[in-house]
Amino acid sequence: STPIKSSAASDVYKRQIRKKSNPVDMGVCTHVSAFNSIPEIASWVVFHLSQGMDRIIIMICTPYPELNELFDEEIRNGKVVLQHFEWPFRKGACSQRQYQVASMTTCFHRYRHSVKTLFFVDVDEYIHSVASPFNYKTIVSSLIESGYDLAKVRK
Predict the structure, then answer these.
(1) CB 25 within 8 A of CB 49
(2) Contact (CB, 8 A) for 154 and 112
(3) Which of 150, 130, 144, 134 is nearest to 52 (CA)?
(4) What's the pLDDT tens digit per position in 57-92?
(5) pTM for the full model?
(6) Three-class DSSP labels, the chain
């Protein structure tokens, strides 16, 4: 099997995680490919940053060098992680859906100890609460209070 290649951004992230022993409160992971445009990805990242997300992890299957430039500061401070993801199968051997599931599974296993609550959201989807706009932490607290146990999902 072919190992997953490391990007410069993920190397920065790995160094930051080694320095920090405490995970961030909330993160969101997404999968991007040739089906997504730079404006679509950028607006999704900006939206989630405005929602108070502590870390945004983007599993990248198609090179987007513009994202490194666009989110340079956020990458350096650990808010945005661009993780190159290449599933070790020849192109055309699997569907887009299978590739996305593989990248999300990899995201979960790779980052589950560095983020206390990890959302998985497509780049064309947004989470919004009328009751708690711009506050994911309130949404998560509300889910826990209503009996939804995140720990069951996480383990």
Answers:
(1) no
(2) yes
(3) 134
(4) 998 988 888 999 999 999 999 999 998 887 665 555
(5) 0.73
(6) CCCCCCCHHHHHHHHHHHHCCCCEEEEEEEEECCCCCHHHHHHHHHHHHHCCCCEEEEEECCCCHHHHHHCHHHHHCCCEEEEECCCCCCCCCCCHHHHHHHHHHHHHHHHCCCEEEEEECCCCCCCCCCCCCCCHHHHHHHHHHCCCCHHHHHC
Q: Residue 90: is it exposed, middle or buried by C-beta count within 10 angstroms (0-12/13-18/19+)?
A: exposed
> Tokens 């998985």 — which residue?
120
| Separation between Cα atoms, residue 83 and residue 123, nearest integer Å | 15
| Residue 25 burial (C-beta neighbours within 10 Å; 0-12, 13-18, 19+) | middle
Q: CA-to-CA distance for 106 and 39, rounded, in angstroms?
A: 25
Q: Are 51 and 139 in contact (CB under 8 A)?
A: no
| Encoded tokens for 7 | 């990007």
